[in-house]
Specification:
CATH topology of the largest domain: Nuclear Transport Factor 2, Chain: A
Number of strands: 7
Radius of gyration: 23 Å
Order of helices and strands: HHHHEEHEEEEEHHHHHHHHHHH
Distance between the termini: 52 Å
Number of helices: 16
Structural class: alpha+beta
Helix content: 40-55%
Largest sheet: 7 strands, mixed
CATH architecture of the largest domain: Roll
């Protein structure tokens, strides 16, 4: 099978992928492995890109392979999922048509069973707007019988989309650094063109919070749906401004980088509005639960801010506890008690919660509160 469009975009492909072989070979492939070893197969793919061996590319990509770039296909020409070697060729043709001067950096190969993850960064200039973006990304491959059966690129596609829309707030120039104009003064706020901007930014949240925003307990990522837009904005800004996510908060600290990567205040508002509009799972039936004796004197105090059924209060930007899972509530109460949250002088609501949590007698009360208000 011939892949003419892949050859036409060869320079783009070479620049985007050749760095992976150089950066990662010393990390994961210091010794030859079996020909069907997942890391070796991915390395062979990058070597084929680097040498221009189109026949090898075709051999390495399974006929039924899927190739996915997580971003809105209606707005990003190379977004969405494609199938087979021809689909891969089309993907790179679209990349070549719309982007120029690509630079890629890859940090490692991370192998788990038949999957290989390659974290790094991607930097390109959008031909139509002249805006140059730099975004964190992760490539995830799945290997079967020595062939690539799936590829997924998880990238800050909200930043990419804003570059396609001509938003100068994401422009890093040709050096990977913000332009002098951007450094000298805050960028002029750019209106979000449509709801797809929030959706695109949210694709960078999927790995922890799930496709539907309902959270993943095993990575301590909470359900985001059911929380008010302004509360979500405040928490994202807390992460961005150093008011939440201390280094010793092992589950909160990763959010600092993710929140900081959101492009500007408009990006924060867009993704918060998108999340607030997502379908919500059923809230915990707090009103019908008996109040355990151990917390009978505490629940009325909690209700002052969080409502009698833990539904939260919009006017106070207080979260809905009945939308959060029990484990997350317990962990956050511990964080407030131990100074990992609510520590910043400018986080008034957080400081109030920290003071309240310090008055809780101990783990039994914390667990009782979490079980009373939280979802199963």
């Amino acid at each position: 099978m011939k892949m003419p469009s892949l050859k036409a975009g060869f320079l783009t492909i070479l620049l985007l992928f050749s760095g992976i072989a150089a950066a990662a070979v010393g990390q994961a492939l210091t010794a030859p492995g079996k020909t069907d070893d997942p890391a070796r197969v991915v390395h062979q793919l990058y070597e084929a890109f680097g040498s221009g061996d189109m026949a090898a590319l075709e051999r390495l990509i399974a006929p039924d392979a899927t190739w996915t770039y997580h971003g809105p296909a209606s707005k990003l020409p190379f977004g969405g999922t494609r199938y087979g070697p021809a689909g891969v060729a089309d993907f790179f043709a679209k990349v070549d048509e719309t982007l120029e001067h690509p630079v890629a950096t890859q940090f490692d190969y991370i192998v788990t069973g038949d999957r290989v993850a390659v974290p790094g960064t991607e930097e390109s200039t959008v031909r139509a707007t002249g805006i140059r973006y730099k975004a964190d990304c992760v490539h995830v491959f799945k290997i079967r019988n020595g062939k690539i059966v799936s590829f997924e690129e998880f990238i800050d596609s909200g930043k990419v989309l804003l570059a396609f829309q001509g938003d100068k707030s994401v422009d890093v120039g040709r050096t990977g650094q913000a332009s002098p104009q951007t450094l000298a003064a805050p960028p002029v706020p750019q209106p979000i063109v449509d709801r797809s901007a929030g959706k695109a930014i949210f694709t960078t949240c999927l790995g922890c919070h799930g496709n539907n925003g309902w959270g993943l307990n095993y990575v301590y990522a909470p359900n985001l749906t059911g929380q008010e837009r302004d509360y979500l904005i405040r928490q994202l800004n807390n992460f961005r401004d150093g008011k939440r996510g201390k280094v010793d908060d092992s589950h909160g600290f990763p959010m600092v980088g993710r929140a900081t990567a959101i492009p500007g205040a408009d990006g924060v508002k867009a993704v918060a509005a998108y999340i607030a509009g997502l379908p919500k799972p059923a809230a915990a039936p707090v009103a019908s639960r008996p109040v355990p004796p151990t917390i009978s004197g505490i629940v009325p105090i909690c209700a002052t801010c969080h409502g009698t059924a833990g539904e939260g209060k919009t006017d106070m930007q207080v979260p809905a506890l009945n939308r959060l899972d029990r484990h997350y509530i317990a962990q956050q109460l511990v964080n407030f008690r131990t100074g990992k949250r609510g520590y910043h002088a400018e986080d008034g609501p957080g400081a109030l919660m920290a003071a309240s949590a310090k008055d809780l007698p101990g783990p039994d009360v914390i667990n009782a509160l979490a079980n009373y208000y939280g979802r199963d």
